[in-house]
């Protein structure tokens, strides 16, 4: 039927026979897309007297917003902390491959590295929209080097730094440029960290607390200065103690400024955290949980030895350790595996599991008006999943960018 | 009239839906041949969230109707009377209303034709009665001050011009209105009573709505259910249309 579209001539696609995640519920509704954005069909009907040009039957799939991974160090042999000649093609490879895991936007993460690495690598990372070429890049996540020696985990000790000398100026000199930086992880107990946190927050960069031995009051002070995230909760921080809960205590702290929420990353691969600990965190503060992979170069490859910045790591099944030790270093988990494991371990609803990988990271980065939801006028980055939460197809800006091969696994 | 009495709200709704479907299919609509379904107009467009959203979510989004074929009175029009007159013209242009489906207010009104409305009235602006305002408060979070006090409505005369009228009445709170509509005389205080003078009216109700009727009336019409059910069984579909039209039976009429 002819559609009289007074607003735009672009084709309108109507996805039918599906259940969409909207308003925290799976609803039996159609999804309408035009010009890469989610369209409001009611306005189209009454105001424009328009109708769909194409109708696609989704065979009862679940449609959820695309996953957003805010902590991923590499994958498929590519290490974001290694300044190689073909760094750009490496990041392109990862961004394309993670489409099959349901990730439509991500923050390439750099672990603690010498300044030369940052100066060479950061200019090669640019914020860009996703598409058939791969998932969108939201900006870099710099995990270190301003972290605690006692909780360095897999980060190389010789590259750790403090804020003693020039606080923010030193940070700027270390990284070279903050143009495409979205998140910085630091240890708040370090002297002069407050001024750094304030300065980063002023520039719209999300400050995350991690690899730290801070106690709860130091962590709360950091939040008051602007910190909003906790890097992989439980890992590389002091364990919860009933008289000083440390950073973990932020989940139920009453000193969080009004109107703000503290988010926390969880690597729910079944290895970094015991499912019981995952459940405790989730039950204490369900709206702050952000699923991350913390995936390393070896993700997607056969077990063996790979690099993680300046370190060599060994993959044995799902475990990834610094070679020759039992220190965990990143993971080989994929985002969709994390979502499934999270749902299984906590027994939460499908909606909650999906939101932990989409809505919450978008809220953390302050982009939920365009990413992380299927609300009208949001970017049409979404996934089709089956009831067991396996990704069947990935869409970015309304275009199909990956589909499960019917014959494949 | 036909009075169809079903056990409860769901059964009444389902019977009515099947009847409307059969009527549409048997009419055989096509390009240039519109089955014009009349529905009571809602509240002014000032409050798009209430009426337009209601119609979209409960009806339009579930069917493949073309937006050009949807005509809703616009309460924001600069000249309201002109808007009403134009609406009457649109009805004529579409070939007249084939079937008008409406409900009944507790005060016996059809559409927004409040007690005292002329039984030959046309589409116009009406001030709403308190009863109606109370009933519509549910669209405005129960806040009476937010409910509009005026509405554009099709007139009683407009609905009387439809070739068939179906009134849906469910619930005990409508029982007295139903009694006044069908067992008392034609009276402009109970405007639905006007349909006693329409050749093709169907009243579909549930048991609760019959509470004020004479036992005799209820028994008489319940006795006719076997015959009335032939209007909804078999349930036709557009695919069968080609075959059926050659063996078409005139729809049952009393």
From TrEMBL, chain A:
<dbReference type="InterPro" id="IPR032466">
    <property type="entry name" value="Metal_Hydrolase"/>
</dbReference>
<feature type="binding site">
    <location>
        <position position="272"/>
    </location>
    <ligand>
        <name>substrate</name>
    </ligand>
</feature>
<feature type="binding site">
    <location>
        <position position="143"/>
    </location>
    <ligand>
        <name>Zn(2+)</name>
    </ligand>
</feature>
<feature type="binding site">
    <location>
        <position position="154"/>
    </location>
    <ligand>
        <name>substrate</name>
    </ligand>
</feature>
<comment type="pathway">
    <text>Amino-sugar metabolism; N-acetylneuraminate degradation.</text>
</comment>
<comment type="similarity">
    <text>Belongs to the metallo-dependent hydrolases superfamily. NagA family.</text>
</comment>
<feature type="binding site">
    <location>
        <begin position="235"/>
        <end position="236"/>
    </location>
    <ligand>
        <name>substrate</name>
    </ligand>
</feature>
<feature type="domain" description="Amidohydrolase-related">
    <location>
        <begin position="62"/>
        <end position="401"/>
    </location>
</feature>
<dbReference type="InterPro" id="IPR003764">
    <property type="entry name" value="GlcNAc_6-P_deAcase"/>
</dbReference>
<dbReference type="Pfam" id="PF01979">
    <property type="entry name" value="Amidohydro_1"/>
</dbReference>
<keyword id="KW-0119">Carbohydrate metabolism</keyword>
<feature type="binding site">
    <location>
        <position position="232"/>
    </location>
    <ligand>
        <name>Zn(2+)</name>
    </ligand>
</feature>
<feature type="binding site">
    <location>
        <position position="243"/>
    </location>
    <ligand>
        <name>substrate</name>
    </ligand>
</feature>
<dbReference type="GO" id="GO:0019262">
    <property type="term" value="P:N-acetylneuraminate catabolic process"/>
</dbReference>
<keyword id="KW-0479">Metal-binding</keyword>
<dbReference type="InterPro" id="IPR006680">
    <property type="entry name" value="Amidohydro-rel"/>
</dbReference>
<dbReference type="GO" id="GO:0008448">
    <property type="term" value="F:N-acetylglucosamine-6-phosphate deacetylase activity"/>
</dbReference>
<feature type="binding site">
    <location>
        <begin position="328"/>
        <end position="330"/>
    </location>
    <ligand>
        <name>substrate</name>
    </ligand>
</feature>
<dbReference type="GO" id="GO:0046872">
    <property type="term" value="F:metal ion binding"/>
</dbReference>
<dbReference type="InterPro" id="IPR011059">
    <property type="entry name" value="Metal-dep_hydrolase_composite"/>
</dbReference>
<feature type="active site" description="Proton donor/acceptor">
    <location>
        <position position="294"/>
    </location>
</feature>
<feature type="binding site">
    <location>
        <position position="211"/>
    </location>
    <ligand>
        <name>Zn(2+)</name>
    </ligand>
</feature>
Automatic annotation (TrEMBL), chain B:
<dbReference type="GO" id="GO:0006046">
    <property type="term" value="P:N-acetylglucosamine catabolic process"/>
</dbReference>
<comment type="similarity">
    <text>Belongs to the glucosamine/galactosamine-6-phosphate isomerase family.</text>
</comment>
<keyword id="KW-0597">Phosphoprotein</keyword>
<dbReference type="InterPro" id="IPR018321">
    <property type="entry name" value="Glucosamine6P_isomerase_CS"/>
</dbReference>
<keyword id="KW-0119">Carbohydrate metabolism</keyword>
<dbReference type="InterPro" id="IPR037171">
    <property type="entry name" value="NagB/RpiA_transferase-like"/>
</dbReference>
<dbReference type="GO" id="GO:0005737">
    <property type="term" value="C:cytoplasm"/>
</dbReference>
<keyword id="KW-0413">Isomerase</keyword>
<dbReference type="Pfam" id="PF01182">
    <property type="entry name" value="Glucosamine_iso"/>
</dbReference>
<dbReference type="GO" id="GO:0016853">
    <property type="term" value="F:isomerase activity"/>
</dbReference>
<dbReference type="GO" id="GO:0019262">
    <property type="term" value="P:N-acetylneuraminate catabolic process"/>
</dbReference>
<dbReference type="GO" id="GO:0006043">
    <property type="term" value="P:glucosamine catabolic process"/>
</dbReference>
<feature type="domain" description="Glucosamine/galactosamine-6-phosphate isomerase">
    <location>
        <begin position="43"/>
        <end position="198"/>
    </location>
</feature>
<dbReference type="GO" id="GO:0004342">
    <property type="term" value="F:glucosamine-6-phosphate deaminase activity"/>
</dbReference>
<protein>
    <recommendedName>
        <fullName>Glucosamine-6-phosphate isomerase</fullName>
        <ecNumber>3.5.99.6</ecNumber>
    </recommendedName>
</protein>
<comment type="function">
    <text>Catalyzes the reversible conversion of alpha-D-glucosamine 6-phosphate (GlcN-6P) into beta-D-fructose 6-phosphate (Fru-6P) and ammonium ion, a regulatory reaction step in de novo uridine diphosphate-N-acetyl-alpha-D-glucosamine (UDP-GlcNAc) biosynthesis via hexosamine pathway. Deamination is coupled to aldo-keto isomerization mediating the metabolic flux from UDP-GlcNAc toward Fru-6P. At high ammonium level can drive amination and isomerization of Fru-6P toward hexosamines and UDP-GlcNAc synthesis.</text>
</comment>
<dbReference type="GO" id="GO:0042802">
    <property type="term" value="F:identical protein binding"/>
</dbReference>
<dbReference type="GO" id="GO:0005975">
    <property type="term" value="P:carbohydrate metabolic process"/>
</dbReference>
<comment type="subunit">
    <text>Homohexamer.</text>
</comment>
<keyword id="KW-0378">Hydrolase</keyword>
<dbReference type="InterPro" id="IPR006148">
    <property type="entry name" value="Glc/Gal-6P_isomerase"/>
</dbReference>
<dbReference type="InterPro" id="IPR004547">
    <property type="entry name" value="Glucosamine6P_isomerase"/>
</dbReference>
């Amino acid at each position: 039927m002819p559609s009289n579209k007074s607003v735009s001539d672009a084709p309108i696609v109507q996805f039918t026979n599906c259940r969409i995640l909207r308003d925290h519920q799976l609803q039996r509704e159609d999804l309408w897309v035009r010009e890469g954005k989610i369209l409001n069909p009611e306005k189209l009907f009454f105001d424009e007297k328009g109708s769909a040009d194409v109708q696609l039957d989704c065979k009862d799939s679940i449609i959820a917003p695309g996953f957003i991974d805010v902590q991923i160090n590499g994958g498929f042999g590519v290490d974001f902390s290694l300044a190689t000649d073909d760094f750009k093609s490496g990041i392109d490879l990862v961004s394309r491959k993670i489409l099959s895991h349901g990730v439509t936007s991500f923050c390439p993460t750099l672990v603690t590295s010498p300044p030369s690495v940052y100066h060479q690598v950061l200019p090669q990372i640019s914020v860009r929209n996703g598409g058939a070429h791969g998932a969108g890049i939201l900006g870099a996540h710099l995990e270190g080097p301003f972290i605690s020696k006692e909780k360095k985990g897999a980060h190389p000790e010789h590259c750790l730094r403090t804020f003693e000398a020039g606080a923010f100026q030193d940070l700027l000199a270390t990284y070279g440029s903050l143009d495409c930086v979205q998140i910085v992880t630091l240890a708040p107990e370090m002297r002069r960290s407050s001024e750094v946190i304030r300065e980063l927050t002023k520039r719209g960069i999300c400050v995350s607390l991690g690899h730290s031995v801070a106690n709860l009051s130091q962590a709360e002070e950091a939040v008051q200065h602007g910190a909003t995230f906790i890097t992989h909760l439980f890992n590389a921080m002091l364990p919860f103690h009933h008289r000083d809960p440390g950073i973990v205590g932020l989940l139920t702290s009453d000193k969080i400024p009004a109107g703000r929420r503290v988010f926390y990353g969880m690597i729910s691969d079944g290895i970094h955290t015991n499912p019981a600990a995952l459940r405790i965190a989730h039950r204490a503060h369900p709206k702050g949980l952000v699923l991350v992979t913390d995936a390393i170069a070896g993700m997607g490859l056969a077990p063996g030895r790979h690099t993680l910045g300046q370190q060599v790591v060994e993959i044995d099944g799902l475990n990834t350790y610094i070679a020759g030790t039992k220190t965990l270093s990143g993971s080989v988990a994929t985002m969709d595996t994390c979502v499934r494991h999270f749902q299984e371990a906590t027994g939460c609803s499908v909606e909650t599991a999906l939101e932990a990988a989409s809505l919450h990271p978008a809220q953390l980065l302050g982009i939920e008006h365009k990413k992380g939801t299927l609300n009208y006028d949001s970017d049409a980055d979404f996934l089709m999943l089956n009831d067991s939460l396996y990704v069947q197809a990935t869409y970015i800006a309304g275009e199909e960018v990956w589909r499960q091969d019917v014959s494949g696994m | 009239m036909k009075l169809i009495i079903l056990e409860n709200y769901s059964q009444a709704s389902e019977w009515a839906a099947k009847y409307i479907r059969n009527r549409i299919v048997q009419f055989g609509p096509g390009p240039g041949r519109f089955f014009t379904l009349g529905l009571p107009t809602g509240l002014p467009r000032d409050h798009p969230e209430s009426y337009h959203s209601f119609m979209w979510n409960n009806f339009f989004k579930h069917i493949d109707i073309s937006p050009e074929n949807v005509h809703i009175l616009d309460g924001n029009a600069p000249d309201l009377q002109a808007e009403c007159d134009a609406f009457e013209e649109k009805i004529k242009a579409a070939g007249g209303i084939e079937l008008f489906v409406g409900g009944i207010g507790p005060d016996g009104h059809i559409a927004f034709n409040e007690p005292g409305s002329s039984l030959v009235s046309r589409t116009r602006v009406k001030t709403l009665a308190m009863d109606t305002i109370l009933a519509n408060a549910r669209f405005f979070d129960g806040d009476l001050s937010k409910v509009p006090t005026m509405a554009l409505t099709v007139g009683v005369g407009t609905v009387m011009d439809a070739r068939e009228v179906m009134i849906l009445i469910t619930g005990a709170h409508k029982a007295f209105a139903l009694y006044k509509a069908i067992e008392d005389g034609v009276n402009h205080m109970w405007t639905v009573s006007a349909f006693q003078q329409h050749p093709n009216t169907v009243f579909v109700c549930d048991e609760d709505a019959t509470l004020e009727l004479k036992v005799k009336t209820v028994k008489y019409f319940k006795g006719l259910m076997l015959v009335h059910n032939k209007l909804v069984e078999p349930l036709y579909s557009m695919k069968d249309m080609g075959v059926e039209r050659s063996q078409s039976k005139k729809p049952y009429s009393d």
